[in-house]
Design goal:
By secondary structure, this protein is of the alpha/beta class. The chain has 12 helices and 7 strands. The chain folds into 3 domains: 43 residues, no CATH class; 210 residues, Rossmann fold, CATH 3.40.50.300; 42 residues, no CATH class.
Amino acid sequence: MTDAGALVDGVLGADRGAIARLLTLVEQGGPEAVAAVARLYPESGKAHVVGMTGAPGAGKSTLTNRLIGRIRATGDRVGVLAIDPSSPFTGGAILGDRVRMQDHAVDPGVFIRSMATRGHLGGLALAAPQALRVLDAAGIPWLILETVGVGQVEVEVAATADTVVVVLNPGWGDGVQANKAGILEIADVFVVNKADRDGLRQTVADLEGMLALAGAGRDGSWRPPIVETVASRGEGTDELWSAILGHRDWLATDDHAHDRRTARIAAELRAIVVARLVAGSGVAYDGPEFDALVDRIEARTLDPYAAADELLA
């Protein structure tokens, strides 16, 4: 049986083994994990969380790898939580992101962990906020949350990160599509990666136009900078780091950081309440009764909402 108390002490002492084991416990969930993170909670809230999001194949993992190196050059430790697609066979993470970050595998100042989405829409594992809290309590000042990359539903990252970096490629689409893409509304920093490809100037112009239409930067609001990178060659990494630092400094003015973290806590609390209500409802999500309702919906003799009412009744 896991000694959660010893793991908590180990995390507070920045013991890598304890951090890894407690993250496993958190991912599995349950009362023991909840109690452990509750003990760590007073020691959290100090790290700056950078969310890396964008479409699959945009180069997020390669860019994250470069950003790790840039942060380590300052002497700071960095933790990475890479949310990977769940394996269809085991439910575990496929670990593709960790493969691309092997440059830092033996660096004691870098902690990289993959977590599976386990089918959760939005690109984030349900346990991701708690996992970030563990790394935070371990005294790691910079945390990078790299999401799966599933398009517009990935906006959940905005409720989890202090600075959201949206990674795009040249030729991503016209300005009309830009305004339709909800993922772009969450960006604190835009990165046009693979900037050596055709279409760069048009992509940057589309982004600039979208920001102008949205009134970004007016009345003291933050105007997301647009950074051009070629992550495979390390080009633009310094500019990205400067943009992230600039946003962190802006958050430190007035109540911007407080407002964002308050919104984050509110979103997490709502999610926990919903999960607790669902868990305590006693509603069966499988079994003969559920299967019979599915059959009736498929036969068009019952609509999904009426079926849900029957389950809840």
